């Protein structure tokens, strides 16, 4: 049975929840073992990369809930997202070490997690939760063992990193993909978590100056991902020079198109775009119009 538990630790949440239990009674009993629920990666509506896991094919969270409701003949009108999340998280019996919450996660669930998942090492928090006025960032101080944190928004980043600096002494990885990184956020990272080794800024809006601030201040960086960013040029000599000693530096697809340079400085650009979801490719049609 120990071998089966080890195998199921590597299987996705949907399979352990809705497939494996119906193979036979002995397999069902194994799925009740908390060891099968130490890594809780909830599916989402879009594929994102959160270190140290990479979701290559990310199913829809609502589909998972609908299938669960159907399989166990639950009244869907009386079964909420919060109820479902709590049910799954409780399977870990306080042993969870990795948790990626879906973007529909409620504030109530976040409070619940802070109380029942004390040993988290890796935590992923979605944008909607972080930008809710009802979310209490102080709860992050409860996770003393955190090593990697993924934030879906840079809102209140200074407050969150200050808490991490004080309470999470083992932090080495920070994921801020698809967020807004201004000089304020860059300085917060440098001052509060200068010793991080892994930094994911894939798809962010970030100025060249802010990126240089990070490169100068975070001297222990081993891996930096700035692919598909808006506001920096992937071939900028100064950036390439600073990053030359990294074990892994990814910058492909990062652009600061000429037509945007004529309209804004980089700092103006990040202020005007804000945290609106975007895709690098969305600018291509404007570039074509300029030609």
Could you please describe the fold and organization of this structure?
With 291 residues, the protein is an alpha/beta fold. It has a single domain, classed as Leucine-rich repeat, LRR (right-handed beta-alpha superhelix), CATH 3.80.10. The protein has 14 helices and twelve strands. The strands form three sheets. Strands 1-4-5-6-7-9-11-12 form an eight-stranded parallel sheet. Helix 8 (157-167) links the parallel strand 6 (148-151) and strand 7. The longest helix is centred in the first third of the chain and has 11 residues, at 61-71. The protein is elongated, with a radius of gyration of 21 Å. Mean pLDDT is 82; it is low at 45-57 and 272-291. GO terms for molecular function: SCF ubiquitin ligase complex binding. This is F-box domain-containing protein.
List the topology elements.
Elements: H1 2-8, H2 13-18, H3 25-31, E1 39-41, E2 49-50, E3 53-54, H4 61-71, H5 81-90, E4 98-100, H6 107-116, E5 122-125, H7 127-130, E6 148-151, H8 157-167, E7 173-175, E8 180-181, H9 183-192, E9 198-200, E10 205-206, H10 208-217, E11 223-225, H11 237-242, E12 248-250, H12 258-263, H13 266-273, H14 284-290
Parallel strand pairs: 1-4, 4-5, 5-6, 6-7, 7-9, 8-10, 9-11, 11-12
Antiparallel strand pairs: 2-3
- Following the backbone from N to C, one meets helices and strands in this order, namely HHHEEEHHEHEHEHEEHEEHEHEHHH
Please state the overall shape, judged from the principal axes of the Cα atoms: elongated
CATH class descriptor:
Alpha Beta
Return the average pLDDT rounded to an integer. Answer: 82
Most strands sheet: 8 strands, parallel
Number of domains: 1
The neighbouring-strand order within the major sheet is: 1-4-5-6-7-9-11-12
Question: What's the alpha carbon Rg, rounded to whole Å?
Answer: 21 Å
Q: Tell me which CATH architecture applies here.
A: Alpha-Beta Horseshoe
Instruction: Report the sheet-strand fraction.
Output: 5-15%
Ends distance: 65 Å
Count every beta strand, where a strand is a DSSP E run of 2 or more residues: 12
**Residue windows where pLDDT falls under 50 for at least 5 positions:** 45-57, 272-291
Structural class computed from helices and strand pairing: alpha/beta
CATH topology: Leucine-rich repeat, LRR (right-handed beta-alpha superhelix)
How many H/I helical runs?
14
- Name of the CATH superfamily: Ribonuclease Inhibitor
Helix content: 25-40%
Oligomerization status of the protein chains: single chain
Organism: Prunus persica
GO molecular function, one term: SCF ubiquitin ligase complex binding
Protein name: F-box domain-containing protein
